[in-house]
Amino acid sequence: MASSSSSARGEMEKMGIDQLKALKEQADLEVNLLQDSLNNIRTANARLESAAGALNDLSLRPQGKKMLVPLTASLYVPGTLDEADKVLVDIGTGYFIEKTMDDGKDYCQRKINLLKSNYEQLFEVLAKKKSVADEAGMVLQSKVRQLQAATTS
């Protein structure tokens, strides 16, 4: 890793100030986009964890149990649990499929595992991009100082 970092710095040392500015801006933009993606994954993961918990809670309730059913995040209506062994799973873009309770739990767990894997991969990419942005910033500052020293001499 150190050799690839030093070779990247060597390449940056050969660049002009304008090129370094462009490289730093591009790397900073990519870092921001990756951070947004990580935040989105965290949000989706939290929603799936909540859904998995709700499925687990629902599976423990007896048939005929009265409960409040969420229509939106803040609107609940009274209902009665009819069949706890079948659930509707939102698979995206407004599509729902009926699954057994166990299949619904398995679906949530697979999605959670996928998101965790994606999060870890994106985090590694983010660390590398941040390193490039930091390195470009240091080389740019060094070149600007050299230019200022040359012009004041």
UniProtKB/TrEMBL annotation:
Coiled coil start-end: 17-51
InterPro entries reported for this sequence: PFD_alpha_archaea, Prefoldin, Prefoldin_subunit_alpha
This protein's record includes keyword Coiled coil: yes
GO biological process: protein folding; response to cold; RNA polymerase I assembly; RNA polymerase II core complex assembly; RNA polymerase III assembly
Gene3D superfamilies: 1.10.287.370
Superkingdom of origin organism: Eukaryota
Keywords: Coiled coil
Molecular-function annotations in GO: unfolded protein binding
GO CC annotations, alphabetized: cytoplasm; prefoldin complex
Family per record: Belongs to the prefoldin subunit alpha family.
The protein's name in its UniProt record: Prefoldin subunit 5
Gene that encodes it: LOC108827960
